[in-house]
Amino acid sequence: MTGLSRRTFMAATGVGLVAPGIVTAAAAAGPNPRVEEVVGRSGVRAYLLREPSTPFISVRFVFADAGAAQDPPEKAGLANMASGLLDEGAGPYDSGSFRAALEDNAIRLSFDADRDGFSGRLETLNENRDLAVELLMLALTEPRFEEEAVERIRAQILTELRRRESDPNDRAGLAWFREAFGAHPYARAVRGTPETVAAITREDLVELTRTRLARGNLHVGVAGDITPGELADLLDAAFGSLPEAPQLPPVPATTLQRAGVVVEPLPVPQSVVVFGHEGIDRHDPDFYAAYVANYILGGGGFSSRLTEEIREKRGLVYGVYSYLMDLVHCPLWMGGLATSNENVKTAIGLVARECRRMAEGDVGEKDVADAKTYLIGSFPLRFTSNDSVARMLVTMSVQKLGRDYLERRNAYIEALTPEDVRRVCARLFSRDILIAVAGQPEGLEPTRAG
């Protein structure tokens, strides 16, 4: 189960040792990545990267457009609650025996939900693969949703929601999305509220699995010791009995509803700030230039401008970051920081100033060259395990990047010129920013624009 998550950028610069069960960086991101597309008799497709050295596989899958944006407003948190219940008993297994079957056989099975998708993860040794696939199939097609499990998971969610009411990170994030999207489903909390979670019934959970989980919106990525023929059989066994097509109303495209500053009063000595505006779509020709621009501004860890100006020069924060967020119906540029209440206004002003500098073209050739060197050189570090490879493969499928994306990706970045990045900075960073603050910021008044 999940809520608002922050995408982070890896700061390591070298390739680590290869542990058992790990796909090598060279295999994943070398000149011939060997990604294969496998299709089962049921029509289910998967991207596969084979690593036969260890008898172990990782499977990642996503049901696109089946996430929290599909939850009815009065049942917000439904997808999140379902993700916590699918492995709490299915078919002939009650909750205890299902969990025992996973743990006794070293099988890892979990589910998750975000705004756009409903996802899952399976990891197993080959000797237990048949059982693992059976448990996955049962979880997706015959979940029991027994009263004890439903009420136990509901209680856990309600406890977590109560805890998060005093968490400035959560409060700032929720406020940002609420103000940014108004009546759009993206405005609602992925975890829901105490009132909406209390309203969810067993029938709602059954309806979710019946209407949202189907072969037609399924994307799969697999890494490890499995042949294409074996994977085709796995796809049919795990997913072949799902409905052919989901029954999903369309989620409308949207834009940010406002800019300005919103304050969530919270009695804490340090405020949390979430900021952002509309980003650039993953398939926009300017995406890679925006990716490099964001690295320079706030995605590069200690080498970023925001860190240099706000942390290193002035000591106002321990960390500040920004990133591109790939929401399907409204891509975003987002960021965040935390600082003492008396420094919030100054820190926010510095974020706005650095955005203006970027928008006005203050980006040098060395800035761009250094960013390109890091983003190309660090790419193999995303492939440190079978699971990280499977996660990349399923992302490639969901975002329709193509089976050869791993071969093409670095060339897109290498081809960028400083002029490309400056042009896109003017497009990306000239937009008005929406800022949400949770805490007791001194001298900062709520404002409204847009």
Write a compact overview of the structure shown.
Helices cover 40% and strands 18% of the residues.
Explain this structure:
The protein is 40% helix and 18% strand. The chain is α+β, with helices and mostly antiparallel strands and 450 residues long. It has two domains: 215 residues, Cytochrome Bc1 Complex, Chain A, domain 1 (2-Layer Sandwich); 185 residues, Metalloenzyme, LuxS/M16 peptidase-like (Cytochrome Bc1 Complex, Chain A, domain 1). Strands 1-2-6-3-5-4 form a six-stranded mixed β-sheet. The radius of gyration is 23 Å and the shape is globular. The two termini are 34 Å apart.
Annotate the secondary structure layout.
Layout: H1 25-29, E1 35-39, E2 45-50, E3 56-64, H2 78-83, H3 95-104, E4 108-113, E5 117-125, H4 129-141, H5 147-164, H6 168-181, H7 194-199, H8 202-212, E6 218-224, H9 228-239, E7 259-265, E8 270-278, H10 287-299, H11 305-312, E9 320-325, E10 332-340, H12 344-359, H13 365-377, H14 386-398, H15 405-414, H16 418-428, E11 434-439, E12 447-449
Parallel strand pairs: 2-6, 7-11
Antiparallel strand pairs: 1-2, 3-5, 3-6, 4-5, 7-12, 8-10, 8-11, 9-10
Name some characteristics of this structure.
globular, disordered N terminus, 2 domains, Cytochrome Bc1 Complex, Chain A, domain 1, alpha+beta
